[in-house]
Design a protein that fits this description.
The chain is mainly beta and 260 residues long. It contains two helices and 18 strands. A four-stranded antiparallel beta sheet has the order 1-2-3-4, with no helix packed on it.
């Protein structure tokens, strides 16, 4: 294993289409510097790492943004921009040109907690979650953003499904998402009552594959022992690259969904 050390507390890492690893973290206090509260408007450090050379590079981005993904053509970063110093949900989603330029906003002021966003492999769309307030709690909604028109559309998911992770298929024609029912989530976590370890239940998650609008959905896996943190889609083509994309059909799923 290769250790990436750029003097920060690591928060997130992802593979770029260019073969580099990208990520962000928060600046650690320097030697002799007293500890202080994290300032979300200046303490982010974004970096890249070349696994072929073992070299890590700090990206020349301002300390109020954290990168979530890089476009397949390498021209833009998908970022969260933080607007107040203290930790909270006051941040917005946007596109930042990799070679410099103005940030293009993709979420509105006051919208709650955009999360788990990523580019489609063809670079035409984004997939992620936005949250709405429901019953005094934040409820995630899976959405797709068309980057050409800058329009946003909801992905149709099972009623009261609480989505916790999602990803694109390698050909950008479908997506996969992880979910559990809202009722099971509330019962498992006992969100609005005192903690009771004896009532805690194991999570039961379902992985569903569908078209970007949520149609033609098919449940492909159920996990009843472990929590899911994220998911990814890897093409398995047994060496026959020329037929790999033709095999991507609802009838035969030649993919491995990696989750954690």
């Amino acid at each position: 294993p290769q250790q990436i050390d750029v003097g920060i507390c690591q928060c997130r890492a992802f593979w770029g289409a260019d073969g580099l690893v990208y990520g962000h973290g928060l600046r650690l206090p320097e030697k002799g510097e007293s500890e202080r509260p994290v300032d979300m408007t200046k303490d982010f450090v974004n970096w890249s790492f070349d696994p072929r050379t073992g070299k890590a590079t700090v990206l020349k981005l301002s300390g109020d943004v954290s990168i979530l993904d890089r476009s397949p053509d390498g021209k833009a970063f998908l970022v969260l921009k933080y607007e107040i110093p203290h930790v909270g949900s006051n941040y917005r989603l946007g596109l930042l040109p990799a070679d410099g330029g103005d940030l293009v906003w993709l979420s509105k002021p006051g919208e709650s907690t955009p999360s788990e966003w990523r580019f489609s492999p063809d670079g035409q769309s984004l997939l992620g979650s936005m949250y709405r307030v429901a019953g005094g709690d934040l409820f995630p909604e899976l959405v797709v953003i068309d980057l050409k028109s800058k329009t946003r559309s909801a992905v149709t998911v099972p009623k009261e499904a609480r989505v916790s992770g999602s990803c694109w298929s390698p050909d950008s024609k479908r997506l996969a998402y992880i979910w559990e029912s809202e009722a099971a989530y509330q019962e498992r976590t006992n969100r609005f009552g005192p903690a009771n370890p004896e009532r805690e239940k194991k999570p039961v998650y379902t992985v569903t594959v569908a078209k970007p609008d949520g149609s033609d959905a098919k449940n492909v896996f159920t996990e009843a022992d472990y929590f899911y943190g994220s998911i990814d889609w890897v093409l398995v083509n047994d060496g026959k690259k020329e037929n790999a994309m033709e095999k991507l059909s609802p009838e035969k799923e030649p993919f491995t969904a990696w989750g954690k």
